[in-house]
C-alpha cells in the first residue's frame, strides 16, 4: 500500500473481480485455447515453448487492440457502477 501512495496512484472503489475486466480472460486466453486445441505435448517444456512462441508471434497491434478494448470495458464498468456484463 505504501508503494501505491509513493507512486501517487489513486485507488478507486471497484467491483469484485470480473472476467469482463480481465484482459487475460477476454482476449488473451480464449484465442490461445483455440490454438492449443488438438495439440499434444510430450513435456511441460514443449508446452511452454509453444505458448511463448504463440505470444511472441503476435504483433504490437494485437496487444494494443486488446488493451484498448480492455480500457473501453473498464470505463463502461465504472460508468455503470459495477453493473457491467459484456454479452
Folded structure, characterized:
The protein is mainly α and 87 residues long. It has one domain. 60% of the residues lie in helices and 0% in strands. It contains four helices and no strands. The longest helix has 20 residues. The chain is elongated and about 45 Å long. The mean pLDDT is 81.
| Secondary-structure element series | HHHH
Q: Class by helix and strand content?
A: mainly alpha
- The N- to C-terminal Cα distance equals 34 Å
Number of helices: 4
Number of DSSP E strands? 0
Q: How is the biggest beta sheet arranged?
A: none
Q: What does the oligomeric state look like here?
A: single chain
| Percent in helix | 55-70%
- Shape by Cα distribution: elongated
Secondary-structure blueprint of this entry?
Blueprint: H1 2-6, H2 23-36, H3 44-56, H4 60-79
List keywords for this structure.
87 residues, mainly alpha, 4 helices
Brief digest:
The chain has 87 residues and is mostly helical. It has helices at 2-6, 23-36, 44-56, 60-79.
Amino acid at each position: 500500500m505504501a508503494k501505491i501512495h509513493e507512486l501517487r496512484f489513486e485507488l478507486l472503489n471497484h467491483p469484485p473481480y470480473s472476467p469482463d475486466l480481465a484482459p487475460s480472460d477476454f482476449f488473451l486466453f480464449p484465442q490461445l485455447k483455440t490454438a492449443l486445441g488438438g495439440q499434444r505435448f510430450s513435456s511441460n517444456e514443449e508446452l511452454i515453448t509453444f505458448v511463448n512462441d504463440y505470444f511472441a508471434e503476435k504483433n504490437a497491434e494485437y496487444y494494443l487492440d486488446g488493451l484498448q478494448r480492455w480500457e473501453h470495458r473498464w470505463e463502461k464498468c465504472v460508468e455503470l457502477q459495477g453493473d457491467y456484463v459484456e454479452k
